[in-house]
Structures are given as C-alpha cells and as structure tokens.
Amino acid sequence: MTTPPRLSSSTSPLEPFCPDCHAEIGHVHHEWCDVARCLATGLQRHGHDLETCRCPRDKWSGWWPGEAECIEFGWLYGSGLPDLNRLMTTATWDPVAHRWSRPDHQTSADRDTTVEGEPR
Fold first, then answer.
1. Cα torsion at 61, 63, 67, 68 (round to 10°)?
2. Which domain holds residue 53?
C-alpha cells in the first residue's frame, strides 16, 4: 500500500515489524497474519477465500492498515489516534491504488471507466 509521509509529530513512528506476523517493512505478511489486508477489498485477508480472490499479497508498511489514510483525511481522535471506524464506514477502498479514498473523491477504478466525463 502507498503511504504518505507522517503529517504530525504527534503520530507514532513507523513500526519496523508487523505486530502479528513480524514481517519487516516492505516484506509480505505471512498467510495467517490477522493484520494483512486483501488488496482487492481492503478487508482482513486472513480467512477470506483464496480460491476465488487472487489478490496480490499485502506488504507491511510500518503503519497499521488505514492509519495513513486517517492521518491524511484528518480523521483522528485527540492526540493523533486514527479513527479507523470512520474510515471503514465512510471511505471507499480503491483496488487499483490499494488504499482508502475519501467519499468525495473518485477512485482509480472510477476514473478508468469514465469517458469524456460520462460513466461507461
């Protein structure tokens, strides 16, 4: 997943290892990892149907899934705790960019199906 630079000194530093499977930054999560995301849906990868979903394997970025987008969108509690509940209920997963987008922005998939401003 793509992540923007840290936007505030009040947010936590990058975690060098995934807290569940201990994958290093830039390395894929283990298949059984509860932190890994399905890059087709943005939801938890562990336990989803690997036979029908051929999504690429998620890599540990040093950020909890969705944390970067919450910081980018300004969806934080108090001293920088990401509002992941708001993200999951309000944002839209972009399966091309492998990240969450604000509801008022088009996803890459939306842009790919638009011709001269009209949906196909």
1. -50
2. 14-61
Determine the Cα–Cα distance for residues 40 and 55; give it in Å rounded to an integer. Answer: 6
Q: What are phi and psi of 72, to 5 degrees?
A: -60, -40
* pLDDT tens, residue by residue, 44-93: 988 777 678 888 899 999 999 999 999 999 999 988 899 999 999 999 99
Q: d(Cα 94, Cα 22) in Å, to the nearest integer?
A: 26
* Surface-to-core class of residue 33, CB atoms within 10 Å of its CB (0-12 exposed, 13-18 middle, 19+ buried): buried
- Please state the domain count of the chain: 2
Residue 30 is given by DSSP the state: P
In a domain, 110, yes or no: yes
pLDDT tier, 5 (very low <50, low <70, confident <90, very high otherwise): very low
pTM: 0.73
